[in-house]
Design brief:
- The structure holds two protein chains of two kinds.
- By secondary structure, chain A is an all-alpha fold.
- Chain A has eight helices and no strands.
- In chain A, helix 1 crosses helix 5, helix 2 packs antiparallel against helix 3 and helix 5 crosses helix 7.
- Chain A is elongated.
- By secondary structure, chain B is α/β, with parallel strands linked by helices.
- Chain B folds into two domains: about 170 residues, P-loop containing nucleotide triphosphate hydrolases (Rossmann fold, 3-Layer(aba) Sandwich), CATH 3.40.50.300; about 60 residues, no CATH class.
- Classes of the chains: A mainly alpha, B alpha/beta.
- Chains A and B meet through helix 4 of A and helix 2, strand 6 and helix 3 of B.
Chain lengths: ~260, ~250
């Protein structure tokens, strides 16, 4: 039973840490310069990874889907299947998981290294609130960047799907786009894209928690990076299930 | 008649433990403004913890820590930030911010805590960097600096806000004798020219003899000797005598 009490203690600590992020993000002074620096770190530097992954995933998915749909004579549905899959689920989830790997490990390792090398103490000694200075901008950057990166993933996936389909059936771009968006409603697009802001909050908060609170010196840097990726990924998948239920509740027409 | 000395830092019966391990046991001492105190002791005897308690980066289990007439124990974050502005802290490994250049490392506290204009900040940064012999290195990142340069850069950052009290954690560790001597000279200069109180954690007995007005020796969490270098070298405590007469 001891592990259970430790688990609850851990959940409580991460919860309080996340609540502090919310409270401090609403309290001046606002760290706009740091936020802009972190947006560049989280957004710009992840863009290539997201676009290339989306493109490859889109191409591969079309190849697989085509084989199945040919059997039923439904190849005309390929663009619609591709668009709905990417906008509703694949784009948001894969973007979240990729960012948990790239950004989550980075945040965990950087903050843990700053803790081990006394840089966080140094910030405090300069009368600067290290939590507001280091943690809040990182979490906000993840919250803001994730929905935009998801859009890049979605459209890169569609492009990859189109090129794959074009090589197979020489489909015209306009026809592909028309068929792709025929079955897509705004609620299929907006709610799933915005849910990635929650994924961003999870990545930022969990990774910052492991990095900011470590007390294991150099060993803690590796642990923080690993734990950040593992727990962020797990929580994203769990949150995805809950958020989909919420979306179905708020937009019943999306529950096909 | 000389003016009465004002107390810069005072410990009153301070106790601090980590888990079951007692780090500081009823430690009391004080240091006046414009004086230099060197903290000596074997590794793990609570010297660095003492500095962190002064800067309120840690809280004691009991006792009082007074900094320039304010008890920092139990103080709120806002009041604490006002007290911290009076102090500079040179960390053991300098703790420079990796992602910022040397210039940005020094400009950060000036931008955040003063109302100086950009040209004024440039002047201060250039002056302090020149003072520590790094006038031409402002554009470099910490990763491009040697150990001695990092120490001097850390000292420059600690001095940028003209602190009344300077805390230095092993300022000469890992440095050659000449560089260590230069760092000691910079600290002495700060004390004599600006009246800064210095609290220095060190294993360098030669440096301590050169710089210190007072020496405090910690052993197993207890303050076993406190006084001038001569007084401590005649202390009844064997550890204190050995450390200072090494």
């Amino acid at each position: 039973m001891r592990w259970l009490s430790k688990l609850f203690e851990f959940i409580g600590k991460v919860g309080l840490f996340s609540l502090r992020v919310v409270a401090d993000s609403l309290r001046p002074p606002f760290e706009f310069a740091q936020l802009s620096r972190q947006l560049a770190e989280v957004g710009n530097k992840s863009l290539a990874l997201i676009v290339v992954s989306g493109f490859a995933l889109g191409a591969v998915m079309t190849l697989h889907t085509r084989n199945t749909l040919v059997t039923f004579g439904a190849t005309a549905m390929i663009p619609a299947v591709q668009a709905v899959s990417f906008f509703v689920e694949i784009g948001p989830l894969v973007t979240g998981l990729l960012l948990a790997g790239r950004v989550g490990s980075g945040i965990g390792a950087v903050l843990a290294n700053m803790r081990a090398s006394e840089q966080i103490d140094a910030i405090e000694s300069l009368s600067i609130d290290s939590f507001k200075f280091l943690v809040v901008p990182r979490v906000l950057a993840c919250v803001i960047a994730l929905p935009f990166l998801t859009l890049f993933m979605d459209f890169a996936g569609l492009l990859g799907g189109f090129l794959s389909e074009e090589l197979s059936s020489h489909i015209a771009p306009t026809l592909y786009v028309n068929r792709a968006f025929d079955y897509l409603q705004w609620s299929n697009f907006i709610a799933p894209t915005l849910k990635t802001a929650v994924f961003g909050f999870i990545i930022g908060s969990v990774s910052s928690y492991f990095g900011y609170t470590t007390d294991k010196g150099a060993q803690g840097v590796g642990e923080a990076a690993t734990n950040s990726v593992v727990l962020s990924s797990l929580l994203i998948i769990v949150a995805d299930v809950l958020l989909i239920k919420c979306i179905f509740f708020l937009f019943p027409e999306t529950a096909i | 008649m000389s003016e009465p000395q004002t107390i810069a830092v005072e410990f009153k019966n301070v106790m601090k433990s980590f888990g079951t391990k007692r780090i500081l046991n009823e430690v009391s001492f004080h240091i006046d403004q414009g004086q230099a105190l060197c903290l000596l002791g074997r590794s793990g005897t609570g010297k660095s913890v003492t500095l962190k308690l002064i800067m309120a980066l840690m809280r004691p289990d009991s006792g009082e820590v007074w900094v320039d007439q304010d008890n920092v124990v139990g103080m709120g974050e806002h009041s604490l930030s006002l007290v911290r502005k009076k102090m500079g802290y040179l960390f053991q490994d300098a703790a420079l911010f990796d992602s910022l250049t040397l210039y940005e490392n020094l400009a950060l506290p000036l931008t955040r805590l003063t109302k100086k204009s950009k040209p004024e900040i440039d002047d201060v940064v250039h002056r302090v960097l020149t003072e520590v012999g790094l006038g031409a290195d402002g554009a470099k990142y910490p990763s491009a600096l040697s150990g001695g340069m990092k120490k001097r850069a850390g000292l420059a950052r600690a001095l940028a806000l003209e602190p009344k009290i300077l805390l230095a954690d092993e300022p000469s560790s890992g440095l050659d004798r000449i560089t260590a001597f230069e760092i000691d000279e910079l600290l002495m200069q700060r004390k004599t020219e600006h009246g800064t109180a210095l609290i220095i954690v060190t294993h360098d007995v030669h440096g301590a003899r050169r710089v210190a007005d007072r020496v405090a020796v910690l052993d197993k969490g207890n303050l076993v000797a406190f006084g001038s270098v001569d007084e401590v070298s005649q202390s009844e405590n064997e550890v204190a005598r050995k450390l200072i007469t090494e």
